[in-house]
Amino acid sequence: xKNKIVVFESVEIMxxxxxxxxxxxxxAGMLAAGEYFFKMAMTPxxxxxxxxxxxxxxxxxxxxxxxxxFPKKKLTLQSNNGLILFAQYLDHxxxxxxxxxxxxxxxxxxxxxxxxMFYDFGYNVLLPDARAQGRSEGKYIGYxxxxxxxxxxxxxxxxxxNGEDSKIVxxxxxxxxxxxxxxxxxxxxxxxxxxxxxxxxxxxxxxxEYQAQNLFHMKAFPRFPIIDIVSxxxxxxxxxYLKNASAVAQLKKNTRPFLFIHGGKDHFVPTKMVWENYTAxxxxxxxxxxxxAGHALSYPMYPGQYRQQVKSFLAKYVS
Length: 319
Hints:
CATH class: Alpha Beta
Strand order of the largest sheet: 1-2-4-3-5-6-7-8
Order of helices and strands: HHEEEHEHEHEHHHEHEHH
Shape: globular
Number of helices: 11
Strand content: 15-25%
Radius of gyration: 23 Å
Structural class: alpha/beta
CATH topology: Rossmann fold
CATH architecture: 3-Layer(aba) Sandwich
Distance between the termini: 95 Å
Largest sheet: 8 strands, mixed
CATH superfamily: Alpha/Beta hydrolase fold, catalytic domain
Number of strands: 8
Number of domains: 1
């Protein structure tokens, strides 16, 4: 009888050890998946920038050639954690300035077509390279949540450079659009007059979840615990939890006029997100959907309508 009890206890102990080992293996797998996805989403080192070779087939080709040849000033500033950030400046000798914010894993040069449009409208143009991208220092991409404080510093540098009677518009595309929305909820100087965003996401967590689902080809992606692990890693390394990085929450604090633009066929930042953003602010606002445009393609697909939408918005709110 005693031997049977000993054997039974040994079997139970083995079962517990197997369960513990399985749990540890599963946990290690989840942690590894979280680390992998964090590196994919937040670090620029294993990604390559798109080629900057201009194509004559690009609808904005002439504008981009103009931008390439235009003499630009190189500006820098220091972030709140000591990073040296880079920007280019196109001087129109004007009091009106637009700050153009580029998308994920890109740089200010990618906003060349927008730079020409705003210069034609009579604006100086500032094109910052977001931290950890382009020529700016940094280790991790902040999806607009960290960068919003950098943009506030650029705003004050423009005011110092061009005077207290400056009029500033902030426009961004994709991650830059989300950054613009996040900036809009900060305590801003009166020189900031209006915002324009093109295809920005509603929250960082929602966008990361959406991209994770696409990356792993899973309709029912296990958001818990992988995304929570990514969020925890991001908090330690990048300073914020994903759930706290919300364009929607910032827009609720916005008081300035806002133009929202989105492609009707955007499958990278789902078109439905623009409605979340648009609804969030009670400030004067307008929305324009480019019917057949995919992600970040509204301007090249509808250049005439795009310019008119922006021009009429600026005429109404930035005199």
